[in-house]
Amino acid sequence: MVNPNLKAPDGPPSDVEGIKDRSNYLRGTLEEVMQDRISAGIPDDDNRLMKHHGSYLQDDRDLRNERQKQKLEPAYQFMLRLRLPGGVATPEQWLVVDDLAEKYGNGTLKLTTRQTFQMHGILKWNMKKTIQAIHSTMLDTIAACGDVNRNVMCISNPDQSEIHSEVYELAKMLSNDLLPRTRAYHEIWLDEEKVAGSPEVDEEVEPMYGPLYLPRKFKIGIAVPPSNDIDVFSQDLGFIAIVENGKLAGFNVAIGGGMGFSHGDKATYPQLSKVIGFVTPDKIYEVAEKVITIQRDYGNRSVRKNARFKYTVDRLGLETVMVELENRLGWKLDEARGFKFDTNGDRYGWVKGVRGKWHFTMFIEGGRVADFEGYKLKTALREIAKVHKGDFRLTANQNLIIGSVSTKDKAKIEALINEYGLTDGSRYSALRRGSMACVALPTCGLAMAEAERYLPVLVDKIEEIVDEAGLRNEEITIRMTGCPNGCARHALGEIGFIGKAVGKYNMYLGAAFDGSRLSKMYRENIGEEEILNELRAILPRYARERQDGEHFGDFVVRAGIIEATTDGTNFHD
Ligand code: SRM
Ligand code: SF4
Fold first, then answer.
1. Which three-class secondary structure string do you get for 226-248?
2. Would you give per-residue pLDDT tens digits along the chain (573 residues)?
3. Does 145 participate in catalysis according to the annotation?
4. For 563, which of 81, 148, 285, 468 is 20 to 30 Å away at the CA?
């Protein structure tokens, strides 16, 4: 199977490769260390494995210094991420997750940029109970993190119902069929009995992944034009639905996207995937499987920061990867078909799908579901879940759709929406509706600056500029992350901020509104005052000089304010 003409990069395997290798298919000593009561944490090796089970050990960074002073171990706690293909959950599932966040988590839910739930603040002793309760509602956390295929995304807005449901079924299929086969998760968390003598041979345990799994995480998303809500070009593997005569003809296949990079390291960069051809719907599993095996065989297992598939594609060359894919498939992809995206944002408010069901997209700032002062969001959604007969759909922009409401039930749901003051975002500026921030502090161990807790405050101030410039209803995407890993897909925000240090950000401009062009750095290491000064100059100019229908990201490029990034490889230039 391995092509002797192609090579993975030389170099000793990274420490994580060793950990996976010794782990007996992701078991490690997790079972034992989770029972140990001496520390609320777990050793680093097991934490690396834990990711494959959908969880990370974190510590509350707000408490770090104080605990250090008191000579206490860090305030260890676990983050738990669910696997929720396409972001669809039933009301029963919502209630279970809501309850678990209350009982074992920090009382809030984070709706993530990959359409799933995260819970924070779970103590070690409550992890097993939490995962078992998740399992009891037919959900799991398998492969939500780790060096495997992650939660498969798909368009969330069901206003194109027929296509939407077909595409959703395919996302679910991909997510299920690309799961690791090891029984480690079932044994450790669900008390499944171990089979004596297992594991047998590699091929039987993990026929696709093998014992080392992938060199790095792998992400798949399915978009249905004209909506690019899932940012298909940011995925390792993207499928773009081609609809002909109202029917799903198939998908254009795009490979090699990813957002993360490290400050000051040009060998790392965000990249957009490239379209390589077209396949019919029955072929997408085969394509996904073969693409994954190419990354398995040729990805960089030595240097993790260069291990994503985007680097494999750029190193080997798109053409070479295509030929390799077609060799593995034993057939050729058809020529890519035409498509056009208009936005990577969400459409808010009520829409009626083609099956006559109603869907209400609401704005959830930073994806955080909590009870705030004067805004009982979590309670409201719980009350809705108690009577709702349709579904909930988590969007890729951290928002929520109360979906599949019958005309008969609409008034009841609307009454609750009004009672609790839930919003379709229309009370806010379009800028705020188009905002997205990663978790960052206090839970993310990699955060260099605030994001989720700060972006709303910054937007309050930018809104004054926007209002003065008469741009309140102008859709502009704004994204902030606490570090360059790009969890809120910063490089695809028309205005982007990436944390550098506490209170300091690099500012990016020039991404396309439809998610088809990356941004570029405009100013480095600036604080709030400088950010506002820059925007005070640029936004009114946009208001005055833009052409008809011209989006902000296109304007700043045309006006020469920033140079266009034409490929990830010139992102830093
Ligand atoms: Fe992410 C790591 C949160 C979507 C790129 N991401 C992390 C960790 C687990 C930090 C860590 O490794 O210790 C963060 C946990 C924070 C916390 O306290 O919860 C974290 N990522 C998130 C979420 C929750 C952000 C959010 O606010 O919604 C998103 C969860 C997605 C999900 O449900 O699966 C999230 N992360 C993304 C995305 C967006 C996407 O996938 O569409 C990206 C950019 C796309 C990509 O992968 O290229 C992303 N996260 C990263 C990276 C950089 C990976 C890279 O190879 O470049 C890291 C760091 C790493 O893997 O070493 C990371
Ligand atoms: Fe953490 Fe950085 Fe991801 Fe934000 S972008 S959640 S700071 S890893």
1. CECCCCHHHCCEEEEEEEECCEE
2. 668 889 899 999 999 999 999 999 999 999 999 999 999 999 999 999 999 999 999 999 999 999 999 999 999 999 999 999 999 999 999 999 999 999 999 999 999 999 999 999 999 999 999 999 999 999 999 999 999 999 999 999 877 768 999 999 999 999 999 999 999 999 999 999 876 555 554 456 899 999 999 999 999 999 999 999 999 999 999 999 999 999 999 999 999 999 999 999 999 999 999 999 999 999 999 999 999 999 999 999 999 999 999 999 999 999 999 999 999 999 999 999 999 999 999 999 999 987 889 999 999 999 999 999 999 999 999 999 999 999 999 999 999 999 999 999 999 999 999 999 999 999 999 999 999 999 999 999 999 999 999 999 999 999 999 999 999 999 999 999 999 999 999 999 999 999 999 999 999 999 999 999 999 999 999 999 999 999 999 999 999 999 999 999 999 999 999 999 999 999 999
3. no
4. 468
Secondary structure (3-state) at 523: strand
Question: How do the domains of the chain map onto residue ranges?
Answer: 147-196+206-345, 349-420, 430-570
147-196+206-345: CATH topology: Sulfite Reductase Hemoprotein; domain 1 (3.30.413)
430-570: same fold as 147-196+206-345?
yes
The most distant pair of C-alpha atoms in the chain lies apart, rounded to whole Å, by 73
Q: CA geometry: angle at 453 spanning 270 and 426, to 5°?
A: 90
Indicate if 154 belongs to the active site.
Answer: no
Contact 148, 54 (CB under 8 A): no
* Ligand 2 center to 405 CA (angstroms): 35
Residues with CB under 6 A from ligand 1: 56, 58, 79, 81, 110, 112-114, 116, 118, 144, 150-151, 216-217, 219, 234, 258-260, 308, 367, 398, 438-439, 443-446, 485-489
> pTM for this structure?
0.97
Strands 220-223 and 237-244: parallel
Characterize the bridge pairing of strands 358-362 and 349-352.
antiparallel
Find the catalytic residue in 20, 51, 81, 433.
Answer: 81
CATH annotation of 349-420: 3.90.480.10
Q: How many Å lie between the centroid of ligand 2 and the Cα of residue 502?
A: 14
Domain topology for 430-570: Sulfite Reductase Hemoprotein; domain 1 (3.30.413)
Q: Which residue has the tokens 């394509």?
A: 287
